[in-house]
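Hi W., the magnesium ion complex you wanted:
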Amino acid sequence: MSSIPISLLNLEDDTPVCLTADEYQKKEGKWCSGCGDFGALNAVKRLLAKEQLKPEKMAFVSGIGCSSRFPHYVNSYGFHGIHGRALPVATGLKLARPELDVFVVMGDGDCTSIGAGHWIHATRYNTNMTVLLLDNNIYGLTKNQTSPTTPQGHTSNTSPRGAVLPALDPLQTTLGVSNASFVAQTADWVPAHLYATLQAAYEHPGFSFVRILQRCPKFTPDVFIDNVKNPDLTELLVHENGVNVPGLDKLYKAQREHDPGDLDEARALAQRKDKLRLGIFFRDDTFPVYDEVRAVPPVTPEEKINRLEKEFGRYAV
Ligand code: SF4
Ligand code: MG
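Structure:
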């Protein structure tokens, strides 16, 4: 568990924190030059500053991977866990400490491979947390191995003749899970859209899943390059309940009115590969939220001790 500076830690103090975006950064990110993780960190810092979240009232949970270094760089509590297990850790944390704002940061290898089972169930549980999937289409930390989202044909250390299977699509997968309540896609090279998407995700009362297309200049420099260079290959999903960034239509002229309440249309759009689509594919604020529906009545410390002693008494010899 990483810790916040003692100067910022005052659990009794309810006065506003008044932190700037840069003051939410604990130390310099150690990613390669040009890595898209920097853009995600900047957007998160802006969000934290806008919301003026107290460092001691939030936690960043990650698994293993380049992007999972995130908790080390944010001025908050953090848990840099084990591979694929960020979601169960975060779920447990949110259930035990519902007053915390919980953020989860995972890579594609982390979430969609070893963590895939947790991903499916955490989506269905719809626990209230903001979930960032930083998808660079490769295992970066372990140096260039094919992940489930690696494009078919892309060569890597583990697929020297090219990935043989079609890539898994995290949007389609998440949209296929019962009770999935917020599914969005954005990209590190469109910072205004990235920030606005994270803002909407944070405000959503439930499991907000945001796939962030993340450039990895080290191992997958080619996978997003066409979209970075040519905005016409990208279509923004816009709607009064979606992500709307003033002025972005000047650069991204292809826009589609999409009602994020339409699940069938969201699934159809996620399946289409004619353009890259950024925006909120689906959201529904009314779906059951696990940390609310399973809420148990508070127990006093005395009651807890009584229950424990009763349990221990069952095994007394
Ligand atoms: Fe970023 Fe790729 Fe470098 Fe990892 S290997 S820090 S994902 S650029
Ligand atoms: Mg990756």
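The chain has a mean pLDDT of 95.

W.
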